[in-house]
What does this fold into?
Amino acid sequence: MTENVALTSSRPRKWFRRPEWLAVCACLALNASLIATVAVYRPAYLADYRLVDNPDARHYVLLGRNVFLHGQYSRNAAPPYVPDMLRTPIYPLFAGGLDVISGPWLIFIAQAITQAICCLLVYRLVQPRFGRRAATVAAFLLALDPMLAISNLQAMSEPLFAVLVLAAIVCLAPLLFDEPPGPAGAFTRRGISAGLLLATATLTRPAGLYLSMVLGGTILVRALLARRLQATLLPIGAMFVATLIPTGAWIARNAVVFSVPRLSTADAIMTVYFAGAGGYQVHEGIGLEDAQRRISKEFSLPPPEVTNNHWVTTQSVAEMDAALRAASARVLMKYPVEVVEGGLLGIIKSSLGHNVEVLTSAMGIPWHHPGGGALLRGEVSAAVGRLLQNHPLAVLLLFWSLAHTAITLVLVASFVAMTVLYADVRRFALPMVPVLAYFYLTVALVGAEAYFRSRSPHVPLLIALAGIAAGRLTSFVAQAPDDRAPITAVR
It folds into this structure.
């Protein structure tokens, strides 16, 4: 009898009974319900990319459409098609290609699928190290995040970037979090795969440019401390080469076309007109546009509407980029303390923000801001009155989003506390520190204007930490250890 039970319990469960696939179904159901809601209220939104409020989203799709329909990498809606350097190519090709095939609705479905894949990846990241319970909580937290699902209703690069980065981290997980056995070249294929994924992510969003260095450096430090440096040199070297070749090709293209051997001009623009402007905003108590005008005039720089759309001026991209980079240190040092304060404010805003207004815009209905400032001033009745003017679905999603964010952050804080008590939690946390620090620096670069979008790329990592904390807490309450799968090297 015992033998029969053992044999039965060892049989693999059907895929639709596995918790990670149930999370995928929940994720797709949430996304499908939001897309269906938009289809009921404003079907034209699913058929015409130009109806999206965000100009960046329109430009992404237009870039890709111009490539497929006219053979030109340009954000111009009509000839002459001036080549573009601000946007890297992967997401425009992704979004523009899907739009050409069948319209924006296909972009939104594809982005819903990327979120579902993230659920599988988070499960795969957590389960071998902390068990099925922790991995299941993490997968469902990610599946039921309304901020991510609503974000999928815009043609923006964050959903694709997030799944690529998470896939790269899962590829490198044995080197980042475990003590992998095996010869020096055992993980070379993982290094190559991670490098290609990171290159694709970098060509999706330039913010990923230095992520391979952060991940590779973290692995090398761990290996050095464990005296296993030789075993990691080959896979990390392979990762760097695999990352460098595609990104280097795009940098070479920019050097030939614009005489600017860089991935994009976006980093210089962000440093001056967002991080630097954040200092002006905090110090002077002014808005972003006023701060940007002050910087442009004070440092004799082309304004952001020119640097972002270089075809409107006779000044070359190389000249504008050089001017911005030459002035960036002076702009940041004008109000250095306030620049830091602006970056911290941006991190807080992005960590707590919601995007219900994106959904109401897609539905073609107004969104009445309750006003967080009014609540802090004690004007509760006025804020509640404005809130109740909104569509019931929008109100529901607002509370759902705020509750989801609060639960996630409380669990992440619990995870941080657990690092003091548990060696396995600490072993997972330490490699996460430089990775998350990198992502938060990219948020700080946006300055005081950072909002929900800025946290989208690292939400899956935070949710992985939250799931680990939830799994450990429930195991403690239930007084039953979570089931563990053995960690084995993948060659």
